[in-house]
Amino acid sequence: MSPASAGANNGNWHTAARWGRFLASVAAVRIQAPADDPVEADVLVALHARRSAEAVRRCRESRPAVPIVLVLTGTDLYRDLDHDPRARHSVECASRVVVLQAEGLERLDAATRAKALVIVQSASAVHAVRSPGDADFVAVGHLRAEKDPETLMRAARLLAADARVPTIAHIGAALDERLGDAARATGAACPAYRWLGPRSHAAARRAIARARALVHPSVLEGGANVVIEAVRSGVPVLASRIDGNVGLLGAGYDGYFPVGDSAGLAALMRRFVADAAFAAHLAAQCAAREPLFRPACERRAVQALVFGLLHAGSAAR
After folding, report:
1. Is position 150 within any domain?
2. Containing domain of residue 44, as a range?
3. Which residues, 6+ apart, have CB-to-CB distance to 172 below 8 Å?
């Protein structure tokens, strides 16, 4: 169950679609929205504690023996579980809770942690050769507050006066029109910054693969697909120091900047462009994490989780 459809082209949808592919060879899988009429299933996998809350509640009340897997998103972990009783009820209903990077476990209470596990997401390896017109940096994420696109825009303005101005391609739909206006204004003031609007997943992946680095300035993440996609393409990442990024790239990674710190991001981008040894160091650190993000690892974990729940249910009957 995914609160996002294919048309949303966001992390929730890509997670649902990927897990569906992993399970399709061994089970009948249907991806539906929380508002759809419920179908009988042997296991319910629900993404997003708050947005899937009503469907989780209906399943638990109407079919109490059905195992429920709840996959927690960034907004669940770092916002909704603190304030929203619907999100907390979803966690209580869940048979197993999944977080997408190890730092997420620290946000759970003891009772929830006891039924939680980490399943790190994966991506295919997409590689490309850079062309002269390709951007130095690419950011991929719909323009909304959680992704903090304004930090990147402010950094672009700080870089505009440099003798060597790095080029920036920003991909994502303006889910907040104010942020769309800010992106257009930034592009007008800083020609090296280009807001490209929404692109297909394949086009976004090609853009990442041809960039020198990915910039990921989010204020909260459960475990961003786009970071994993960059690493699998051999592209280093300049990321905000938040749990969702640290859980993927490691506490010792040297490509972080403080959340919301546009000056810190601009300085990191300058260093990356000017210092080849530093850029190579970040690439090597990312390469060391790359095996964690291979599809075979995620596929085994997803199948083991679902089969374990099915086996436990059969044994109990």
Report:
1. yes
2. 6-122+294-316
3. 139, 140, 141, 142, 143, 147, 149, 197, 198
Shared domain for 289 and 307, answered yes or no, is no
Q: Which residue has the tokens 């086996």?
A: 311
Instruction: Classify 99 in phi/psi space as left (phi over 0), alpha (psi -120 to 50) or beta.
Output: beta
Q: H or E segment at 54?
A: helix 53-62
- For 48-99, write each residue's pLDDT tens digit: 999 999 999 999 999 999 999 999 999 999 999 999 999 999 999 999 999 9
Confidence (pLDDT) at 136: 98
* Overall average pLDDT of the 20-40 stretch: 83
Return the SS3 of 193: strand
* Residue 1 maps to a domain: no
As for how many domains the chain has, the answer is: 2
Residue 36 banded pLDDT, cuts 50, 70, 90: confident
CATH code of residue 253: 3.40.50.2000
Q: What is the pLDDT of residue 317?
A: 44
Rounded-to-integer distance, Cα 186 and Cα 51, Å: 33
User: How many other CB atoms sit within 10 Å of the CB of residue 116?
Assistant: 19
For residues 279 and 306, state if they share a domain: no
Same-domain status, 312 and 236 = no
Q: How many CB atoms lie within 10 A of CB 245?
A: 25
**Token pair belonging to 145:** 């507050």
Q: Which residues of 57-91 are buried (b: 16+ CB within 10 A; e: fewer)?
A: eebbeeeeebbbbbbbbbbbbbbbbeebeebbbbb
